[in-house]
Amino acid sequence: MADTEAMESPSKELMTFASYLHNPTKSGLRAREGVLNGRRVQFFKGKSAINALVKAENGEVAKVSSREEAVEWVQDLLDFQLIVRCDKVGEGSQQLRINPMQSFDEDAYFAWLYEGSQLMTYLGGIGVVAVVLAGVMFPLWPSSLKKGTWYLSMLALGLLGLLFAIAIVRLIVYVISLGVAPQGLWIFPNLFEDVGFIESFIPLYGWDAPSGASADNAAPGATTAAAATAAAPSSGTDSGAEQKKTN
Length: 247
Known about the structure:
By secondary structure, this protein is of the alpha+beta class. Helices cover 50% and strands 13% of the residues. Strand 3 (83-88) and strand 4 form a beta hairpin.
């Protein structure tokens, strides 16, 4: 590892470690949100950072070979002020204050000063500016482009209206079905579930199982079919035995 005192800026390798730890999907390091000097920050415990470096995540090779090496890398993050050691102000509080002892300790808390890659932020800003400029210059658009935009907007409004209509109809059907059956009937039961677009409309309908219902009550047909299937072999066996007796 390079000598941190001889470096004016973090090395590329150190920034790679910072990016790795800053990304919970890659490292598994789950940071909590706190307030440091009136600014919202993400903070974590030193022990969690060491564990994230020495353990392999998502089938990848561990970043370091020992806990001692991991401690050195995290100390480098401290030296280059990519993270800062802090203490909680009160038990269970989200308020943080900087610890004057900026040395690594596995039981201490550390807040991120490194904000990660700003590429998506820049691209998002450029996109917002582009959309605003396009809207301002709408009168200068060619007539064909204006007409196409109008058709697209009408199509989007039509789809949105259709979604609201389906939601209202399925609610009406559900309320009516509760009056004639113990279980409510939903049209497109997966419409508002966390599934894909096609799966939202499959199946076409479904019964609302009451809370706390057993599997036998939820699917009596399946239970009956299973019983019939289980009884079929035994019936055949009994018939064979009876035939042997007769012989």
